[in-house]
Amino acid sequence: MEPPNQQDPNAEPQVPRQCFRRRYPEADYYEEKNKDKLRNDTYKKAIDCHADKIKDKVVLDLGCGTGILSILCAKAGASKVYAVDVGTDIAGQVEHIVEANNKSHVIVVWRGSFEDFDIAEREGVDVIVSEWMGQMLLGEEMLLKVITARDRWLKPEGLILPSSGTLFMAPFTNSNQYREKVAFWQNVAGIDMSAMIPFTEQNAFHLPNVDRIRNGYLLANPAEVKHINCYSITTPELISMSISFPMTALRRGVVHGFAFWFDAEFTGLRDEEEQRSALDLMDEVPVLCTGPSLPSTHWEQTLIYFPAPVTLEKGKSLTGSVTLTQPAQHKWHMDIQLVYRSNRGNLVSDKRVELFSR
């Protein structure tokens, strides 16, 4: 059964966006991020929460964008903040923003490639803060840069914010979108064009969509794909990771694909078990949640549609595996392989997609 339409009837229709690196002109890209109130508020809460580890310390803001995190750290009492961004145009704007906020004596803006950036050997940094999360958590190369910066410059007891991130997935139903893209071929201007349906099923949803999926559209409880500990994760671990998942249908429904989303966690803790224990105290630990049950963020969710829908009976299982691979030469790309099996264990699909394209 299709869940009731929970959208505001007066809201403008939302068009799903495919996961391309440059979805918008640069100004629009930063506008979207800075309008994300949940993102802004969570980072501010996290920086305030860890102000005792930031005060009088040296901070590296990696991928600083418009400089909002750099300024928040300066306001928290940092003695120096290195604001680094490869976008030379935006870095020029950051200098004006820093000056307008009277933080030029604290914040040093670096324009250019991260690989060319360096810090005096004896100085190092006490804190690394970054918005490294991309689509499906790992859909950008920023975490690889955080790892490099951590290993080069972070002091032994240094702080990383966010400290960890967790990627989740769950099967979803979305008959409205399926009808819009596929089912209308049954009859076009009184002509039977149903022969187009198999072709459309294979092509209409080839690329992932960035879209908002309602919590009521999920057909099973989410499975954890990967927990990333920013203090210990290594580059080889990020290049390829794979998990197997068992999911049990909460009700009967037609599965149109899998939804992916993430939490970014600001515990400040190094040990993974301690990180997970702290997350049980969600009210005390700042967590940026991008899931469908919570207010929307600019990340929304990443939806990977099946080539053809799968009917799932209540209490029956949907099993399979997901493998995420970042090609060594194209770290902005991510290859996603989904293998999933239906109720009786027969192979439904082996689907490979690419998260980003140039």
Automatic annotation (TrEMBL):
The keyword Thylakoid appears for this protein: no
SUPFAM superfamilies the record matches: S-adenosyl-L-methionine-dependent methyltransferases
Domain Methyltransferase per the UniProt entry, residue ranges: 59-158
Pfam families: Methyltransf_25, PRMT_C
Limits of the Protein arginine N-methyltransferase domain: 164-342
CDD domains: AdoMet_MTases
Domain of life: Eukaryota
Keyword Transferase annotated: yes
InterPro entries per record: Arg_MeTrfase, Methyltransf_25, PRMT_dom, SAM-dependent_MTases_sf
Alphabetical UniProt keywords: Methyltransferase, S-adenosyl-L-methionine, Transferase
Protein name, per record: Uncharacterized protein
